[in-house]
Amino acid sequence: MNLDDLYNMIPSVPCPPGCITCCKKFGIPSRTPEEDLRIKAFLREHGISGKLNDFELSDSDNTCPYVTTRGCAIYPVRPFICRLYGTAPNYLCIENVRPITMLSPEEEEELLFLYRSIGK
Ligand code: SF4
Ligand code: SF4
């Protein structure tokens, strides 16, 4: 199993277009070294550098540096935790948006276990 296999096991959250609420709440998302390399390569390939946020940050000190008014600047390579958010009992969406099928507590635990195993 690799990272992409793991990502494919996570349900999709039907986020309303333009919603970036969670991206403004939890700061820099955690990532494994492999995810960090993917993000850096993506930023390089797309010539993205410097300050990404293009909206007022005064309402939150915890805004992810990759969020813009147009959404996530690194969406194709966003890390596991961003994908898991909203899909699992311990990562409920603060806007109460849910996937068709939520992960069970056991599935959440299993995915986190696999993620940590892959990240080693
Ligand atoms: S997970 Fe929830 S808060 Fe985050 S973008 Fe989707 S709907 Fe918005
Ligand atoms: S990496 Fe993207 S999806 Fe994750 S918190 Fe930042 S802007 Fe949101």
How do the strands and helices of this protein lay out in sequence?
Blueprint: H1 3-8, H2 33-45, E1 67-68, E2 71-72, H3 80-84, H4 105-119
Antiparallel strand pairs: 1-2
The structure holds iron/sulfur cluster (2 copies).
One iron/sulfur cluster is lined by residues 13, 15, 19, 21-22, 85-86, 93-95, 97.
Descriptors:
120 residues; mainly alpha; single chain; globular; binds iron/sulfur cluster; two-stranded antiparallel ribbon
Q: Nutshell version of this structure?
A:
The chain has 120 residues and is mainly α. Helix content is 32%, strand content 3%.
Commentary on this structure:
This protein has 120 residues and is mainly α. 32% of the residues lie in helices and 3% in strands. The chain has one domain. It has a two-stranded antiparallel sheet. The structure holds iron/sulfur cluster (2 copies). Residues 13, 15, 19, 21-22, 85-86, 93-95, 97 line the site of one iron/sulfur cluster (SF4).
The tally of beta strands, per DSSP, is 2
Proportion of residues in β-strands:
under 5%
Total number of distinct structural domains = 1
Q: What's the alpha carbon Rg, rounded to whole Å?
A: 15 Å
- Subunit arrangement of the protein: single chain
Number of continuous helical runs:
4
- Sequence of secondary-structure elements: HHEEHH
The unreliable regions are none
User: How far is it from the N-terminal to the C-terminal residue, by CA?
Assistant: 13 Å
Bound molecules: iron/sulfur cluster
Residue share in helices?
A: 25-40%
Q: What is the 3D shape?
A: globular
Kindly report the spatial arrangement of strands forming the biggest sheet. 1-2
Main sheet specs: 2 strands, antiparallel
Q: Which whole number gives the mean pLDDT?
A: 89
Structural class: mainly alpha
